[in-house]
């Protein structure tokens, strides 16, 4: 029996695979039981990419096996083990009964859907249940709410500075290293010939992972994406190896080319560490401290290191704060009243638009695309084409291995689709084909002509951009960051405006047949 005299069932969820998770931090081998469960409902509430499912289930099984090897009592439910239809809460309750537990300890889940399920179940489950705040993040929801209180606008840049001060990362006393907070202006180089980044570290599937792959092929044959090759790390040790390889090989050029897109380079200089951070295999502060050390040691330039750290302690923490601050109805926001369904080619990559075909095809292959591919290709197109923001949200949540609702929903609804009307972003991230041509090599292999503004051979992004600007003038022209855009639109000839409207109608009627 534990020193407190209480026998605990300690629950770990699939994205809490860390010994720092509050529910297991004080685990006592003499009395406590670690409980983990694979639940059909969690695998299917959206059609998760097969490679994402393989990552989560294999990492869960490895985590449980490692704890058992360390002398923990582990109760692990695999898909198909339960004789009755299972939910997460029903499996937790049955496990507590099996082990004669007095109390259950949970760590706050990362999404409203699960939190609501826990809150509905706890009062009548028959056990004392402790629901602990997840303090593996740098900023708690309560701290974020205090920061946000009284502010007319919530801007990541100012929040990020507070996180720099709090963590001491890239600081000299109260002054940022380099005498400025943000080096993003140096991180927008377009791709150039001869880039030869190393590939992310890959790991051959072991017996546990091969069993998971067989299970997914059997149970989820209709889920999107490809399982082979499966190369993700599934343990903390492998995630740490991936971190070290990124710091050594790709971090020095990460900053310069983090916005670039190249059709035959799926990863460029990106870290691919978000899949390990968001599942719990890596600690965000430890990762940032390792990256900072690369700068202090002279291995990586300041613009690369600051840009990486800003993504982790700035943007990642900021969107989580927005998610919990804005509540359960945030996902229903639809500022532009967009109603079009998600185009079918988002599930196949079969479109004549080379940029979309490349980004979606890569997504189906890898369960990964970097932030500019998501924001300025698949997200930009969905917004310009009037796709229902909830539909594109569900797609992002399903297809990316690093997508959990707390991080994905604000990125999609707020930044990518501007569906919250400016809570998260200061303006819509809308762009024509010119941006894509500048930052990628996609346009050179496209059947559409990026330099052509009108007609059936023109890049659809060109006329969809101006049609979007025209359609939403009433909502956008008061935005101070949109003034130049509307002045340009107003100078266009009536004939050109008519071409824009006609081309957009033609394209949208073909893309969304009624």
Could you explain the architecture of this structure?
By secondary structure, the chain is mainly alpha-helical. Helix content is 47%, strand content 5%. Strands 3-2-1-4-5 form a five-stranded parallel sheet, sandwiched between helices. The longest helix has 25 residues, at 302-326. It is globular. The chain starts with 7 loop residues before the first strand and ends with a helix. The mean pLDDT is 96.
Structural class: mainly alpha
Fraction of helical residues: 40-55%
Q: What's the total count of β strands?
A: 7
Outline the biggest β-sheet. 5 strands, parallel
Major sheet strand order? 3-2-1-4-5
Give the averaged pLDDT, no decimals. Answer: 96
What is the overall silhouette?
globular
Strand proportion: 5-15%
Contiguous low-pLDDT stretches (5 residues minimum) are none
What is the distance, rounded to the nearest whole angstrom, between the alpha carbons of the first and last residues? 66 Å
What oligomeric state do the depicted chains represent?
A: single chain
Number of helices: 21
**H-E order:** EEHHEHEHEHHEEHHHHHHHHHHHHHHH
Gyration radius (Cα, Å) is: 24 Å
């Amino acid at each position: 029996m534990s020193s407190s005299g209480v026998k605990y069932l300690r629950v770990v969820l699939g994205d809490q695979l860390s010994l720092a998770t509050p529910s297991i931090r004080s685990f006592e081998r003499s009395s406590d039981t670690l409980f983990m469960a694979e639940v059909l409902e969690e695998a299917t509430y959206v059609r998760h990419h097969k490679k994402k499912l393989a990552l989560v289930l294999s990492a869960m099984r490895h985590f449980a096996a490692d704890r058992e090897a360390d002398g923990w009592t582990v109760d692990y439910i695999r898909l198909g083990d339960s004789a009755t239809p299972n939910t997460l809460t029903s499996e937790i309750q049955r496990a507590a009964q099996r082990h004669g537990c007095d109390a259950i300890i949970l760590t706050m889940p990362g999404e409203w859907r699960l939190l609501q399920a826990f809150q509905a179940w706890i009062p009548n489950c028959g056990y004392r249940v402790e629901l602990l705040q997840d303090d593996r993040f740098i900023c708690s929801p309560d701290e974020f709410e205090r920061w946000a209180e009284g502010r007319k606008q919530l801007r990541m840049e100012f929040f990020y500075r507070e996180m720099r001060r709090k963590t001491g990362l890239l600081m000299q006393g109260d002054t940022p290293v380099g005498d400025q907070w943000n080096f993003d202006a140096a991180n927008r180089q377009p791709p150039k010939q001869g880039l030869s980044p190393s590939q992310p570290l890959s790991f051959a599937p072991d017996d546990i992972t091969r069993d998971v792959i067989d299970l997914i092929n059997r149970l989820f044959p209709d889920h999107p994406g490809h399982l082979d090759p499966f190369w993700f790390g599934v343990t903390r040790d492998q995630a740490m190896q991936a971190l070290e390889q990124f710091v050594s090989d790709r971090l020095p050029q990460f900053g310069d080319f983090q916005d670039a897109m190249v059709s035959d380079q799926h990863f460029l200089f990106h870290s691919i560490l978000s899949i390990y951070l968001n599942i719990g295999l890596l600690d965000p502060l430890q990762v940032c401290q390792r990256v900072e050390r690369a700068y202090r040691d002279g291995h990586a330039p300041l613009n690369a290191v600051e840009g990486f750290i800003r993504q982790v302690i700035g943007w990642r923490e900021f969107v989580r704060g927005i998610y919990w601050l804005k509540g359960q109805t945030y996902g229903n926001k639809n500022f532009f009243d967009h109603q079009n369904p998600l185009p079918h080619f988002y599930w196949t990559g079969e479109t004549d638009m080379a940029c979309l075909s490349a980004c979606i095809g890569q997504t189906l292959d890898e369960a990964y695309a970097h932030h500019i591919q998501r924001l300025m290709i698949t997200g930009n197109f969905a917004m310009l084409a009037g796709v229902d923001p909830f539909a594109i949200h569900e797609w992002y949540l399903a297809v990316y291995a690093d997508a959990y609702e707390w991080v994905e929903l604000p990125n999609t609804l707020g930044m990518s689709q501007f569906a919250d009307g400016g809570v998260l972003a200061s303006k819509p991230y809308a762009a024509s084909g010119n941006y894509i041509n500048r930052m990628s090599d996609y346009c050179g292999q496209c059947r559409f002509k990026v330099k052509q503004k009108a007609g059936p051979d023109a890049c659809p992004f060109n006329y969809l951009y101006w049609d979007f600007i025209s359609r939403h003038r009433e909502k956008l022209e008061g935005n101070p960051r949109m003034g130049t855009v509307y002045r340009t639109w107003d100078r266009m000839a009536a004939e050109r405006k008519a071409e824009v409207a006609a081309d957009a109608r033609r394209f949208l009627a073909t893309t969304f047949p009624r």
